[in-house]
Amino acid sequence: MDTIFKPANEHTILQAAALLRQGELVAFPTETVYGLGADALNEKAVAHIFAAKGRPGDNPLIVHVADKSQLDDLCEVTPDAEKLMDAFWPGPLTILLKKKPAVPDITTAGLPSVAVRCPDHPVALALLRESRVPVAAPSANRSGRPSPTTASHVYEDMNGRIAMILQGGDCRVGVESTVLDMTKDVPCILRPGAVTKEMVISVLGRCTVADSVMRPLKEGEAAPSPGMKHRHYAPRASMTVYIGNREKVIAEICRRYDEAENAVILALDGDIPSFGERHVLSIGTSPEETAHLLFKRLRETDEMGVSLVLAQGWEGEEMVLAVMNRMARAAAFDVIKL
Ligand code: TXA
Ligand code: MG
Question: What range defines the domain where residue 329 resides?
Answer without folding.
Answer: 238-337
